[in-house]
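2.7 Reproducibility. Because tokenized structures are sensitive to small changes in the input, we list the exact sequence used for ArsR family transcriptional regulator, including any N-terminal residues retained from the expression construct. No trimming or masking was applied before prediction.
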Amino acid sequence: MRRDVFQAIADPNRRAIIHLLSGERLTINQIADNFEVSRPAISKHVKVLEECGLVVIKPQGRERYCEARLKKLGEVSEWIAQYQKFWTGKLDALEDFLYKNELKSR
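Resulting structure tokens (single pass, no recycling of outputs):
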């Protein structure tokens, strides 16, 4: 099953894993050491991140290292940007309205 990036960031543990991997590549065990959930649960989270294209797992000897691929987060940024533009316009209009009403009441 191919998941999308929004599914990945919906879970706080996956967001924390992305944050960890944004600084360095880690094994599943190294990732799991940072959480109070089981290693199998972390493996499932990493699998979701891999399916979303946010993590790549590279074998090196007997270890499997996870690396972040943050380019896909651009989809989230683009989605947010459209609402940021909308709300910035609304808040600017509200500010203008309040300023004009304040001037009238003086």
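The two ends are 63 Å apart (CA to CA).
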